[in-house]
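User: Assemble these into one structure.

Assistant: Restating your components, then the assembled model:
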Amino acid sequence: MALSVDEAVSTGPARDHAPPSRRFGGRGRAVLEVALLTVLAVVMLFPVLWMIETSIKENRDVYAIPAKFFDFKVTMEHFKDVFVASGGGRSTLSASFLNSVLVAGVSTALATVLGVPAAWAYSRFSVKAKKDQLFFILSTRFMPPVVVVIPIFLMYRQVGLIDTKLGLILIYTAFNVPFTIWMMKGFVDEVPAEYEDAAMLDGYTRLQAFWRFTLPLLLPGIAATAVFALIFSWNEFVFAIFLTSSDDVRTAPPAIAGLIGGTTVDWGLVAAASVVFALPVLVFAYLVRKHLVAGVTLGAVRR
Amino acid sequence: MSDSAPLTTDHPGQVASATPPAPGRSSRLSDRGLAVAFTSPALLLLLAMSVFPLLWALYLSFTDYSATRGGTAQFLWFENYTAILTSPQVHQRALTTLIYVAGAVTLQTVLGFTIAYLISRRTHGRGLLTTLFLVPMMLSPVVVGLFWRFMLDAQFGVINSMLGSLGLGQVEWLTRQRTALISLILVDTWQWTPFIMLIALAGLTAVPKYLYEAAAIDRASQWFQFRTITLPLVWPLLLIAVLFRAIEAFRLFDLVYILTSGGPGVSTETLSFHVYKVAFLGFNTGTASAYGILMVLVVIVLTQLYLRYLNKLKED
């Protein structure tokens, strides 16, 4: 980090360098770059491939020393174990997946309902101390979860929200609202306010103008924002593990983490559960790839 | 509903003359009402779920309250704060956190920027490459932590297996004091290098082509172009990404919890993890609250810095 600062600042004396002859450059350099890129891509992707491989390996091969990369028996047993309990019937893991769908879905819907109108209002009207309000909203999202969870835990214990899905939904909504507002404000800013002015000249009220003309134009943005909120809630772990304990409330992240609690760990099952858990996220992330920069910076950076 | 939209908005001028504009005063009043009605539900939720809990934690931080003992809390004023700020235990955790944040963020920045730079120089397959590189970032820290724990296992982990077949010695990645912190930094780097890469790539592709063309005409070297064109133009955006990562790394909890649980010993206990131990294993809620408030102060300072740079970037 510090190194790059120095480089950025000391651009002055570079003119002394004579431009080196570029006869060698060109192709040799390009090959080198491609090779480097390939190596980096393999390193970055290997763990993911290894996870997928482990999830379809027989237990014997999972613990093989040295590790087996290609010649292993393929089995779907681990995936079956994710969904079906050993005695038949639904496994606790599959119940936790359903809980995750419910909690992430409802909290995302709530955050959208609360966040989109707020984003529109912040974009269109001159609200008092607008900048401060927006900064305050974003900074609530930056609070360390371990710190926030202490008073939330006490608060929930007081009102009986500990170990309930409603409790999780509320806290997830609260951390998705700042994101939704920042992300959506960017989308609203892109829709010219003149559309609404024109509609109001036609006799529509401001609210009708928003509802009938701006909102339909915002739908793609709302969809992208909701997908990110869904991913954030789906992946969330800290609140889930401290605020829930029973199997019928617990979401998937703490349930998967719970698989390594015992004396022996069934890594094939862990891998299969992780694959099932991660797959929807990757699909959704691919759908919103155009908005990734804005999404992962909580709507702060837009390019 | 949406059918009528293009009809009216395409010809605002023609229709405008038909209906007189609403009187300015009343419409402005209703605008204000609408703004309040639309922003207050979100703000109220944030007040209830973020601000109120933090204020409660602030109150608790001045007391000796314990979540398990219950009963009335004694007011201690700043005793908790002085206890934390003078505790050698906390100093050690702060150092661990500093090493972790600095190490991970530096590695991510260097690697992420390198990858972005290499990708930006390719003309074919950029979209596919970017998508592939982004996979680690989208995974839950739980999945990442669990899986690396498996891969770094000293006995049957694939990393040691590969080291073995290369003829290198085995490394006890997660069970030795020094290597455990390095492992934590490496895993975090693996997950978040794509983040820096993504932002850097956004910055790199926004650099206007004609600057390079002009430089090429002047026969400026690649290195010179990089230093005088690429870096200065990408740096502001990169700084935002770096600060963002620093805040995230500072508040990180889940990866530590899954990967090492702070061990071996206390070698990978970051401040976040220590707060958790004080609050949920020691049940010193008052002390933990004071600890948490101090962490919040650090985050607020970092966030202010982040938002200031963000503002500067937006104004340019």
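Chain B is about 75% helix and 0% strand.
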